Amino acid sequence: MAVYIIMTIISMLFAGYAQNVKEVESLDSTYRILGVMAFLPFAVVSALRYQVGTDWPIYNDYFHSIPAGGKKFTEPLFNLLNRFLYHFTQNSYILFAVVAVLLLSFMFLTIFQQSEYLPLSILIFVVSGDFFNSQNQIRQMLATAILLYALKYVYDRNWKHYFLLLLIAAGIHISALLFVPVYFIYGKRVNIKKQIIVYLILGISVPILGKLVLRLISKTKYGWYIGSMYDTNNFYLIGFVFTLFFLAIFYYYVYCNPEHDVKYEFYVNLYYLAAVTVLFSSVVPQADRLMKLFASITCLAVPKLVFREEDRNKRILLYMLVVGAFTEITGIKVNCAENPEETVVQGLNKIVSDEKYKRLTFTMKTKIYK
């Protein structure tokens, strides 16, 4: 854990310096250099990880299987990336390293181009669990990072660039298609009363609507999820409570600041979709994963939220409340090695020498599309 804490602190320090020169046009090159310096600690730690994350065995297995014409993912672009990297080395480490660099590049570009306050966005990226998810759910998180980056084209109303990036993200993880309506949400006012009524109606209707959703899923190639090991029918209680808690805070600052802030209300509407999605976690397989897709907006939404509080003392308290809540809920539960320091050392020592990950392995008997 010490490695992740040091990584975050170093990155936030560079981001803090960048924040000070952000609005100075003559220091644009300095801003870019500081952005790279803030990016590097995350890139180094992520790229040098070895056997970190619960999905490591899955991607290692598929890395060898895809070029051999065996098992492959549904999404073509990730398979294409896999095949391309396999031409350079049969060590699956390269896949994790390249995906990590790509994912973090999009995330840091998003933060440095769109965030209200850079250090807080980086901190939220970590304590919200999104960074640790990127060590496990690498396809979905890569797609999510691309979608967040694409939001800048939503602000500019550049639909061609937005939907091009959305299609690229969907070619990596199909869940990206849920961001199709996001383009049309921008500019819509947050109507707290209507959203609460819709939320309650959906909550009551989950047993019926859930069956309809499952029927639709069963007609697609993703129907295998139903009744599989991923169809647990467990209600995501922590996610339910957490999204409601933060949605209430977001609503409070809409109510207290009635002046229309287009971006802030856009973020609130996206987070509302996360809260709605979690309602279906007891009936729709992997609904909690879909919730995280929308909830990833917090790295941009939270800085906006904090700086809507005009009173300095209250702003500090709000800052502490938000960060504390994320840290408490997430618990910084990293599904990695117990000693991250050893993980980095293992990565340096075994990238080239470990031959067992160069052999074709076909040990995964279950069809998995994580």
Question: How would you sum up this structure in a few lines?
Answer:
The protein has 370 residues and is mainly α.
Walk me through the structure:
The chain has helices spanning 2-21, 28-47, 56-65, 76-86, 93-114, 118-127, 130-133, 138-155, 159-170, 182-185, 192-218, 237-256, 262-278, 287-295, 298-306, 312-330, 340-350. The chain has 370 residues and is mainly alpha-helical. The longest helix is centred in the middle third of the chain and has 27 residues, at 192-218. The radius of gyration is 21 Å and the shape is globular. The model is unreliable at 332-370 (pLDDT under 50).
What structural keywords apply?
single chain; 370 residues; mainly alpha; disordered C terminus
Task: Map the helices and strands.
Layout: H1 2-21, H2 28-47, H3 56-65, H4 76-86, H5 93-114, H6 118-127, H7 130-133, H8 138-155, H9 159-170, H10 182-185, H11 192-218, H12 237-256, H13 262-278, H14 287-295, H15 298-306, H16 312-330, H17 340-350
Task: Provide the succession of SSEs.
Answer: HHHHHHHHHHHHHHHHH
Distance between the termini: 25 Å
Count of DSSP helices?
17
Average pLDDT over all residues: 84
Using the alpha-carbon principal axes, give the shape.
globular
* Helical proportion, percent range: 55-70%
- Range of strand content: under 5%
Q: Identify low-pLDDT runs.
A: 332-370
Largest sheet: none
**Alpha-beta content class:** mainly alpha
Counted beta strands: 0
Radius of gyration: 21 Å
